[in-house]
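Sequence, please.
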């Protein structure tokens, strides 16, 4: 899962492709972006000064993401909206996937897009945040995934971006109140980032990423952890993804289990809350681990986690 923005030059990935969460640890601490105070602060210009090249039109009675788009293939046409202008040398955007939150992309110039990547530096501005503060003011940078980097160099999500600034917009929106802009620049590492001839230059952007579903699978594949942790399908998300409920406790007879208190833990209530997945990951690994403290907790309590 990722709280994500997405851009590519031709089309989205076919349905059988998925991002690999490569488990690797940096040899050195990640370097924070150091604010110089001279970063650009472009003001939002909007449709009066550019062309809308992507817009997610809600097709249901509710105003939230409810269905992922089927990826185009050689045998089936693209579901990309046909009423948008087809300008030359324009990036194509897509956000109809789990936690995708890009509503609109406006091309201001050939190298600058407002969001409501090659040896060219692109600047992206997401112009309608509501939070008055952000970790981007403390050195956090967006992450980028490159298929070619993963294939050739086994590099997964990497921190990218320069000239990063998070600031309050001057204009006041009567419906949303004060809004804020995140703006950053980057240069894509490759001109052609996908070996498939049907696609070119495939990248993924995210603010934060997590691989909770892979972690759940790893727990069930571990013989010792699986003994104390059972997983059942609770429901499906609006996008059709499985939502599980986990029961963690020491095996015992039913009479003993009835005497144990139940502790309920919940995280990632909203799909974009990726940081909580990392907290829950640590909790799950601890509660299913082999430490004496974890064993004592499992003997006393039943943990229900979702």
């Amino acid at each position: 899962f990722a709280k994500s923005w997405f851009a590519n030059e031709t089309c989205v990935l076919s349905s059988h492709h998925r991002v690999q969460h490569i488990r690797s640890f940096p040899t050195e601490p990640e370097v924070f972006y150091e604010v110089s105070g001279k970063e650009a602060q472009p003001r939002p210009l909007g449709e009066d000064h550019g062309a809308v090249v992507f817009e997610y039109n809600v097709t249901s009675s509710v105003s939230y993401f409810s269905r992922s788009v089927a990826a185009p293939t050689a045998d089936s046409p693209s579901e990309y909206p046909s009423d948008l202008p087809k300008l030359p040398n324009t990036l194509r955007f897509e956000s109809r996937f789990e936690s995708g939150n890009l509503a609109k992309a406006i091309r201001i110039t050939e190298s600058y897009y407002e969001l409501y990547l090659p040896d060219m530096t692109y600047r992206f501005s997401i112009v309608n945040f509501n939070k008055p503060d952000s970790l981007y003011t403390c050195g956090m940078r967006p992450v980028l995934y490159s298929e070619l980097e993963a294939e050739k160099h086994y590099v997964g999500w990497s921190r990218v971006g320069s000239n990063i600034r998070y600031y309050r917009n001057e204009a006041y929106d009567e419906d949303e109140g004060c809004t804020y802009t995140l703006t950053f620049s980057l240069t894509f590492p490759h001109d052609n980032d996908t070996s498939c001839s049907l696609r070119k230059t495939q990248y993924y952007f995210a603010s934060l990423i997590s691989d909770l579903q892979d972690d759940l699978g790893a727990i069930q594949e571990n013989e010792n952890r699986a003994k104390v942790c059972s997983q059942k399908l609770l429901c499906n998300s609006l996008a059709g993804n499985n939502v599980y409920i986990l029961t963690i406790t020491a095996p015992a007879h039913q009479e003993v289990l009835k005497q144990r208190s139940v502790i309920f833990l919940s995280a990632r209530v909203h799909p974009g809350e990726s940081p909580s997945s990392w907290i829950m990951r640590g909790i799950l690994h601890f509660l299913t681990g082999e430490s004496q403290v974890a064993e004592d907790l499992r003997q006393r309590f039943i943990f229900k986690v979702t």
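The helical segments are 147-153, 212-221, 223-228, 254-258, 274-287, 292-300.
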